[in-house]
Design a protein that fits this description.
Layout (H helix, E strand, L loop, with lengths): L1 H14 L7 H21 L4 H23 L12 E2 L17 E4 L7 E6 H12 L12 H4 L3 H8 L4 E8 L7 E12 L9 E8 L2 E7 L9 H23 L5 H25 L6 H15 L3
Antiparallel strand pairs: 1-2, 2-3, 3-7, 4-5, 5-6, 6-7
Helix pairs in contact: 2-3, 7-8
């Protein structure tokens, strides 16, 4: 009887239908296959024309799968079916390894941007980024922690520019929103003060995560103490460069000294901003603008 029971159990396993892959699993499998396909073509030295054509085709297929994963996305001011956020499938290019998400934006230059993904896709992306061995590329696997790291915005949606924050904004979560963060900062190729600051709100609602950015309408003034820090850093870097140029013997450490002085000045400048922004005259209006923006993204 025992053997008969085991045979019946095994027979049931054999005839039971296999679990169908979820839309997310389908997308991830297709994405990994696409990455391997591009890498193989590059290794085989395929022509740029063939690579470009295959790359565009694969990204279009992934975009369709992402729309199935995300389902309906309807946020006032962000029209269209959404475009894939993953800029490149080649690890040789800028935009490789970006967040698996769809982006929504208007047609005008500088229009607000909305990036939408799922909790699961975001958690998988964070897990991968947390394993990066190079500190400059590493992002925490914990979302709440990651949102406090500039690297998150650089690698998730930043394409070819590094993100640096100027302030954290104390937002109130609208009803139905589980997590919310507000940030003032900007992407740029240079260090120091960034004239092109953006308001960024990130919120988790249901199974979706929304990252939205727009240029603030509030006039954001300078913070004198922070400007002094940056000015002094530049003066120190200029002196170090002059000392190096005038030295009879030169070494790499002396050559790099001015760059290190500027990098430290940039860090100190932004730390100053983060510490002092909430006490500035422009902060209440900026905070209200960010809260209104978050409420709109949340559908309130």
């Amino acid at each position: 009887m025992r053997w008969a029971s085991w045979l019946i159990f095994l027979f049931c396993l054999l005839i039971s239908p296999a679990r169908a892959a979820s839309p997310e699993e389908d997308y991830l499998a297709l994405r990994d296959k696409a990455l391997s396909r591009i890498k193989a073509m590059e290794k085989a030295k395929a022509s740029e024309q063939k690579l470009s054509a295959e790359h565009d085709k694969l990204r279009a297929d992934l975009e369709k799968r992402l729309r199935v994963v995300l389902g309906d996305v309807s946020v006032t001011g962000f029209p269209g079916p959404g475009k894939i956020n993953l800029e490149s499938l080649s690890d040789r290019d800028v935009g490789y390894g970006m967040l698996d998400a769809l982006t929504y934006t208007g047609s005008a230059e500088g229009a607000p941007l909305l990036v939408v993904t799922t909790r699961s896709l975001l958690n998988k992306w964070l897990a991968g980024r947390s394993r990066e061995k190079v500190a400059e590329s590493n992002v925490s696997a914990d979302l709440a922690t990651a949102l406090g790291q500039d690297n998150f915005f650089t690698f998730a949606i930043g394409e070819d520019a590094a993100f640096t924050r100027n302030a954290n904004l104390d937002l109130t979560a609208p009803a139905g929103v589980e997590l919310i963060r507000g940030t003032l900062g900007g992407w740029g190729q240079d260090i120091g003060p960034n004239p092109d600051l953006m308001l960024i709100v990130t919120l988790m609602k249901g199974d979706k995560v929304y990252i939205a950015s727009e240029r603030p309408k509030t006039t954001i003034g300078k913070i004198a103490a922070c400007e002094t820090i940056w000015t002094q850093a530049i003066e120190k870097a200029d002196k170090l460069r002059a000392d190096y140029d005038g030295a009879k013997s030169k070494d790499q450490d002396a050559f790099d000294a001015d760059s290190k002085a500027q990098a430290q000045g940039d860090k100190d400048f932004h730390t100053c901003w983060i510490e002092r922004a909430a006490k500035q005259p422009f902060y209440p209006a900026l905070l209200k603008e960010a809260q209104d923006f978050a409420n709109r993204i949340a559908g309130k």
